[in-house]
Give the backbone structure.
Amino acid sequence: MATQTTAKSNPSETVPKVVGGAAVNVDEVTSDLGFDMDDMKHCFDNLIVIDAGANLTNKKYSRDLDSVIQRAKDAGVQKIMVPGTSVKSSKEALRLSRIYPDIIYSTAGIHPHDSKSIIEDPSSWFEFQEIAASQECVAIGPCGLDYQRDFSEPDVQKEIFEKQLLLASNLGKAVLIHERSAQQDVLDILDKFENLPPIIVRSFMGTAEEAIKYLDRRFYISLTGYLCKDKSDTGVRRLLDNGTLPLDRLLVETDSPFMYPNTRASKLPQHVKTGITERSLLYLHRYCTFQRNEPCSLPAIVEMIAAFMKKSADEVALATAFNALKLFGLS
C-alpha cells in the first residue's frame, strides 16, 4: 500500500498485515467498500496509491513529463487522474491518457472560471461532449461554482454547471465538484437532479461543518497537501482528528503542480511529521517544490492523513485506492 516501514522497503511487499502492532484486516476493508476479496487479490502486489487529481497538462511539466510519471510510479502511485478544466485542457488530458495508458486517465470539465468560454463559443460544447464520452475519460469535472473570484459571472457558472451535471448523468460518469464560497448554491443545484452519479468534492479546503453537509448526502471528499496549511480549529484537520470523515468516503490527490505538502510547517503536529516515512520524504524533498509539486508526493500525503486519523498508512492507502477504482470504473 502507501507506506513502508523503512526507507529500503519494497512497495510490492507492503500489503497491510501488521502495522504499528495492530493488524489490518484486508477482508473487512474490501468488504466494507463492496469488493469481493477473491476478485481483488491480484491487485495487492502492485496496489499502492491512486492520485485522484494531478494537473499534468500544466506547462510546468512540458519538458520532463516522462520523468515525472516514472517518479510517480517508482514512489508507488499506480494511477493518476488528470483533470481537464476547459475544452482545450480536457482534450489535452485525453491525449495524455492515450500516450500513457493504464497509468493516466482523464476527466473532462469546464471549471467555473472558464464557464464564460462556452457562452462565448457555444459550438465548443459539442467538442466537449465528444471528449467527455471517450472511454479514457472517467469523470466529468471539475465543475461547480467559485465565488472567490469573478472570472465568470455566477449565473453563467450555474448554467454551465447544470449542463455538465446533465451530461454526467447521461454518461453515467462520476462528477468532480469544485466549490469555493458557494456551498449552498452548489447543493441547491445538485438537489434539482435525481439519480446523479457519484459526487466527489475535490481538493476540499472548507470547514468541518461544510464537509458534514457533503457527507450527509453520501458525497466523497478528496484531500490534498492543504493539510499542511490548514491551521484552523474547524477545518480539514478536525475532520480527520475526530473521525468525521470515514475511510469509505475519502480520496487523495496531489493537485500537482499546486498544493505542495510542506511537511516542515511549524503548525504540523509532531506525531504527523514522524508518521512520514524516510522513503516518502526522499521523493517529496528531492523532486517536489512549492513552485512545482508532483504526484510522487502522494505517499507522504497519505501518511499524514493516516497520522491525523490515527490509522495505519496502509489502511488509508488501501481504502482510498479502492474508492478510486470503484468511482472511476478502473481495474
Q: What stands out?
A: DSSP finds 14 helices and ten strands in the chain. The longest strand covers residues 137-146. Residues 1-30, 37-47 have pLDDT under 50 and may be disordered. Residues 154-171 form the longest helix (18 residues).
